[in-house]
Amino acid sequence: MPSRCNLASVTSANHDVAPHRWPFWLLAGLVLLVALWVALGEGRTLLERRSQMVLLAGAVMAGAIIMVSSKLKGERWQRWIVRGLSAGALIFGLPELVAQRTGIAWDVRLGVTAPESECPVFYRMPTRVLNGLYLQREGGLSWSGKPLSALMKWKRCSDEAYADEQAFDSHYDRDGFRNPSDLRDWDVVVIGDSQVELASLPEAKSITGVLAKQSGLRVKNLGTAGTGMLTHLAYLRHFGQAESCRDAILFLNEHDLTELADEWSRVQSHQPPPQGAQNHSLLLAAWRRLGQTMRSSDGRSFVNAELKGPEGKVVPVSFYPPVSHGSDRMTALERQAFAEAMRQFTKAAGELQMRAWLVLEPSALRVWHGRLAFQAGAAAEVRDWQPNDAMEVMRRAAEAAGVNVIDLTPPLSAAVDRGLLFNPILDKHLTSLGAEVVADTIAAALAKAKPQP
């Protein structure tokens, strides 16, 4: 039986250890809450759950603190360290949990990114779900201003490339597409991604706007940035039919093949479309804001190459991955997805009594190849790219499915000395000259084709 002195010392030791245990139980509860948060979060992918990942990382750290605390033998300095770490985890963890539950876009609130009202509709991801598998824009949207200049400001770009840009208004119909609200019948429907929407230009200077003017045909624009080919076929079926429409034109850029394969796999497994989630993490937003503050207020330059134009004129340009790859690097899934998409396109167009046209758009890298001088900082994938057979492979597959093909490589390459065909910095969409060349090429192809019986 221990002596009275020994009993007193044991009791004193227990009292010395017990008070610092309550933060550990609180942190254990925080770990449980975070686990529930991630399990019940709206996101389905790691990207969509990036805000929750910040909190989860903190919870893991808190759990590690709890485990370490169980190994401590009661040394005073160790207990104070654990208490400090516990307090820090609580000070940051609980406000972060509350911040995420508010649903506030902290990147916008802290000035890391511009509010949506300042972001052109063209650069926003579509959010309305179509058939549970695809995305389209909200209807009735509008925006006024200079979209390319807004993009430069949003990206904190210090390069001067669009000083002459003129402000204009962009309006979208009730289905979220860039058409007049009173358009009820049309002769041609054009489907595709951002190059078809082309809201970096006024509607009259876009591909569909110039095509309508040059051909005298009524043209419906079913283009939406950030969407894939299977989504475009869904647009055709849902929004493309009209009494007078006899031609369906589908756009595809040469480096979109990988994106098509990913979309094909997702649709085949009936997975819902990924939606860009806003950042609801206060800690992550604060960290990004701190990084912006520490960097130069002048922003950053994105120029990593020079374009040699006519008469020795040099234009600063920027290029970033992805780039297209030829048949030697095409996967079986990419080939299968493209071939099946072409078959679906032919079938859908036939059911709607339309001719199916595929417009193959080369990248600026292909059109300007041989005229570019890259800086040392350019990505090797871009700097070392060489013309490949991607366009020819897709052309053959499309024609095998009964689709008429328009390859834009020859007309765009022939027009290089007329001026800039693509925007030089950050944005690589067609300029007004590029859109004009494309529209003229399509108009000529439609006029040359035999009338639809």
Report on this structure.
It contains 17 helices and twelve strands. Mean pLDDT is 84; it is low at 1-18. The longest helix is centred in the N-terminal third of the chain and has 27 residues, at 76-102. It has helices spanning 4-17, 22-40, 50-69, 76-102, 106-109, 147-154, 194-197, 207-215, 229-239, 257-268, 282-294, 332-351, 364-367, 380-383, 390-400, 409-414, 432-448; strands at residues 128-130, 134-136, 142-145, 168-171, 188-192, 219-223, 247-253, 305-308, 314-317, 355-361, 372-374, 404-407. The chain has two domains: 4-102, no CATH class; 116-281 and 299-448, 3-Layer(aba) Sandwich (Rossmann fold), CATH 3.40.50.
Features:
453 residues; alpha/beta; Rossmann fold; five-stranded parallel sheet
